[in-house]
Amino acid sequence: MYQFNYERPKTLADAEALLGKADDPKILAGGQTLIPTLKQRLAMPSDVIDIGGIKELDFIRAEGDAVMIGAATRHATVATSPDVRKHNPALADLAGWIGDPAVRHMGTLGGSIANNDPAADYPAACLGLDAKIHTTKRLIEADEFFTGMFETALQDGEIIKEVTFPHPEKAAYMKFRNPASRYAMVGVFVSKGPWGVRVAVTGAGQNGVFRVAEMEEALAKSWSPDAVANIKVPAKGINSDLHGSAEYRAHLVTVMAKRAVAAAS
Amino acid sequence: MSGAIAAEGIGQPVRRKEDFRFITGNGHYTDDIARARQTYAYFLRSPHAHARIKSIDTSAAEAAPGVVAVFTGKHVADDGLGGLICGWTVTSKDGTPMKAGAHPVLAFDTVRYVGDHVAMVVAETLADARAAAELIDVDYEALPAAVALSTCQDEKTAQVHTEAPRNTCFEWELGNKAETEAAFAKADRVVKLDLTNNRLIPNAMEPRAAIGEYDKGSGIYTLHTTSQNPHVARLVLSAFVGVAPEHKLRVVAPDVGGGFGSKIFIYAEETACVWAAAKVGRPIKWTGDRSEAFLSDAHGRDHLSHAELALDKDGKFLGLRVKTIANLGAYLSTFSASVPTYLYGTLLSGQYDFPAIYVEVDGVYTHTAPVDAYRGAGRPEATYLVERIVETAARETGIDPAELRRRNFVRTFPHQTPVIMNYDAGDYEASLDAALEAIDYKGFAARKSEAASRGKLRGIGFSSYIEACGLAPSAAVGSLGAGVGLWESAEVRVNPTGNIEVLTGSHSHGQGHETTFAQLVASRLGVPLDSVEIVHGDTDKVQFGMGTYGSRSGAVGMSAIVRALDKIETKAKKIAAHLMEAAVEDIVFENGTFTVQGTDKSLAWAELSLAAYTAHGFPSADIEPGLKEGAFYDPTNFTFPAGCHICEVEIDPDTGITRIVKFVAVDDFGTVINPMIVEGQVHGGIAQGIGQALLEHGVYDPDSGQLVTGSYMDYCMPRADDLPSFTLGFTKTVCPSNPLGMKGCGEAGAIASPPAIINAVTDALGIRDIEMPATPARVWEALQSAAPRAAAE
Amino acid sequence: MSVVAMTVNGKPASADIEPRTLLVQFIREQLGLTGTHVGCDTSQCGACVVHVDGRAVKSCTMLAAQAEGAEVLTIEGLAANGDLHPVQKAFREHHGLQCGFCTPGMIMTAVDLIRRKPELDEETVREELEGNICRCTGYHNIVKAILAASQEMR
To answer: φ and ψ at A139, to 5 degrees?
Structure first.
């Protein structure tokens, strides 16, 4: 790791102020991605602003027809939250499948989506549930938030405060894990709710999470595994490496979508 | 024997003595050791698979904060330090010795694999050393690389060493070519198979580490290192590399966190640390991180083979011929030449009565990390080839795979194979029968159709393996090219108070020697287990030893202890006879007590041990004071563990995921000292075999020579949820070649299991072959290409 | 450099360290508690697992500064008053370790697992060990040990 200054603000306002002052700051939430990156000397921030101790960012609130989750809420907290489990079991399941137990004790919702790793799970939930991402500056629709591999709509100095997940009528997440890294090689989140039907795919796309319109249309007509069984996403734009060809991953999108719909029925 | 002592004796599942320190965090691994004023080393490694070093400028690094010194290949050469060696010389079929390229400790003018050692930075902290390494300016001229095994012998491919044209280090043969050709000429059927034995990266969980120290007053160097054989390391570092004379070099291998072969070898890092300790006048510590382990630990396996099996009309095997290309990597490692030759070709007879075998092996260089012994070393590759082609023959002849094996088993012993080995004992049918019973072979068809009703493909696969361990008679290995003898040493020191220290040349890094060796000593001497301490891993304590690999510590290391105990008993009886005024022939030693036969005179163990050191009134001509004896034991033969593993898999055709639904292993290890520990060895071996068959693959980019699987992000380590619980069974034929009748158990699981798994996968898929590892992607792709064919049929 | 203070195994611990110091470095190098190991550099092997405020975390993927004020428990602190923890006992009884290098992380993970899920079955144990790699045991006896300990602790 290169040297950096470390700050652990207690409030969001302090965090914003520190971010504004620093040359080239990085926000540390749970650190489960940032710290490995720093260890490999792939990043050289001047300042690391640790928002993991900001209490106002660590909460889960069920209000009306949505669950609000603070950005610094740990995956394990989401996975075991009675509110999330009750209103949005697919989201609780997804959080409980991220990384491993120790990673889930540290990793946070905000950290995951701000990083937008193409193999991360939460982006699929955000996109698949028409989530609203509230930042220190504005509200961003999930559809607008994820802009490409490791790219988001976040601007410099903008911190995610919370994410609003509306309750789905039906939803499920199915993940095919990369055998080595255990990240999502293909993860498919399907849902039905006030927003209609959504099918969001993570892990597979070269540009990160994406929606499959053809599957959404088919499921809107008939919510059944058979409805998506014959819909193939094109292999173009799908990752290909030693763990599997683009064709294989594209095929897995269909298989996982089918299984997710079955699980959500 | 008292109940308590009997419960600790041979054959008992005694809980391990070493566990307390490990479960409480009190182990002492190399990186746990801190020396006063120690510095930290970081190695700058080659980013290129092949490049000429035009120049190295270390000035900025030397001026960086905290830097103590920077060393390059030039310093090493100027100091006259020798290169790293291969301790086994293989002779090609034309009679020429293998073509060994120089293996400098730090690269001099050429780098030959990604991760090759270019410079060592020594600094006050690891962070300082690492930061400074980034300031070293190396001007490389990148050169084309020889990476793919299939093309590395082409004329146009880049050369790794000028000494070895066409990158060929040796062209070795074994067996009788003419007899084999004749056998094929009269065959009713010839089964052919091309096989890949995938490259593996060992991944002991403790990364390699070293601390080099130099004491100016005495001129003694001390090296703490993660070694399976500290004495061999000392010998190589003194006699060949020339770091220090042997008596001025102490090598200590403290607690070592797994080895699996990868810590047998003498590497550049520990060599550089101990050498440079004298230059900087301070201890130098190096601890590899996992990324460095991937790049620079010696890898395993990596063969391409073509095999042909000749059968008569009844399915009797007439002959086997094999051509193998074995990857040696960029440099010969400590024992690498022996692995694809004498540890491989000699096992190609399997459990079968083959009239003729002929094998050719080309050992080739590539611009990749050195390849050397990894759990099983040569025998997994042989077993994979034999058991895959036998299973294929069963399918092609329509003979049940169990039946085809039965028809060809060796049934009388000793049995001389066409490939050197002389099998001394075994009962292959017994382990096959026990395994068939345990897996419920008869019920397989019903299970397969039940699985099909759930949309799953179920398959079953066999592996009737044999291996050779207990390495090995010194005369035998010497005649085959080994530069060392493979005996083992032991010294038994009885203290005046009766407790015992046993010094052994074996080294435990997970195998539980502190328990099993103590069980042997305690039961033999009739003393409590707690009164026996096993001492190993320090050249200052143990005079010499050959270390632990090749499942040799039981059969060879414990045999040496038996010999030393024999001498202890002889001398103790002499003392007892003197003290009790009786004839030596009348002394009976049982349950830790010496008695005079036919009398009530007796002497307890502790009374005798004390008397041995008080030595009052010993007839000085007959009895020396003290009770300490040593022995060097040289085995008379290899040992031949054998058995049968059967695997049943279920494949999800939608995803290609293979699930092992049942894995049965029935092994014959001869005498077992501690069944709990032996079972643990089998579990671990099978897990590594499942890793090879389904998960693990060391992959280099064929053009750039970059290691693609350089971390756990891409190299698939077996996790708990990849594996089933295993069903184990044991049969027993006592090994006649050592005093305890032991055969060795450390590698059998890794040797036997891969063909059982791939036989099951190919059975489930209805295909002839699938390359290891049979990943979900490969299985799915196999199904895609099989599907149109099936539809067309 | 800045002073970081926490409680480790029930005792106050503090040191003046660089901000980039990892928790595992603080534990091993500052406190000399070398039972916590480092087996990889990609946060996957779990040899470094300790408890921070009662929850299992990978100490190689956490800055020491993040643990400011926290209660940290390492393998050395698990045997309260010298009595082995039931999980430690079970690992010995069921031969759940060989070389011992992954063992501290395995045990700390298992203790956390049993706290979170007292009712365990084999499949759950295997899934929960996703973040802990053992190269020696094939996990067979680790799984057995954890199941036995969870029974014992009910």
So the answer is: -110, 130
